[in-house]
Amino acid sequence: MSGHSKWSKVKHQKASTDAVKGKIFTKMANAIIMAVKQGGGTDPDSNFKLRLAIDRAKNANMPKDNIVRAIERAGKSGESESVSEIIYEAFGPAGIGILIKAVTDNKQRTVSEIKNILERGGGVLASQGAVSHLFQQVGLLEVEKNSRTFDEIFELVSQAGGIDMEEEEGIIMVYSTYADLHKVREFLEKHAFKILSAELYFRPDLQLNIEKTDLSEKIDKLLIILEDTEDIQRVYTNYKPNV
Q1: Looking at residue 4, what is its pLDDT?
Q2: Structural domain includes residue 1
Q3: Could you tell me the end-to-end alpha-carbon distance of the chain, in angstroms, rounded to an integer?
Q4: Residue 144 is part of which domain span?
Q5: Which of 86, 91, 81 is nearest to 111 (CA)?
Q6: Which of 30, 35, 152, 202 has the fewest Cβ atoms nearer than 10 Å?
Q7: Residue 237 domain-assigned?
């Protein structure tokens, strides 16, 4: 199966820039609020979505005080009711599929901004279901390979309940079912794996390989602008740049 796009590298590189701008902390705070709303409660030990949101905030170098304040805000009556999570579907240049996860307190503002970005970047907003059928919602763990061989890790991932894995530059991407992410993570942690990140992820069934040209640069620019938008939490695509 095709899996983790090399586009992920661009997202990791963007994270530090976003942190400097301060936008990333707003994104992380909103993710925490949604995790409390969806997962039920402010205790990360019993709310796995909140644990993922906190881990992601830490990976983005969000200060502990900011994380605590976001959890406290989320726990206040009515605070989480003002925001909602929406998955927008779009097509980009060359017909690539894009899923845009947004958290917003103003749906009209957010959809208008996304439409404008897409139109300027050669994309178009799609109807519900037009793009999402090209993806599967799975769990994704990024772990350090260290001294283990690929076969050794594959055996452990299989025991953990993982459904697939890939290697990229010393990083192992472990895929699980949506429901088993927590179980697979705990198993790998018990076997001394260093977990770099864990998230619920939209994985494309097939990827569109596009050579590095003016077209690929146009796609990269569009995806970066979407990622940099404050209301947008995550951008998933079946685009795979050939680099």
Answers
A1: 45
A2: no
A3: 20
A4: 135-204
A5: 86
A6: 152
A7: yes
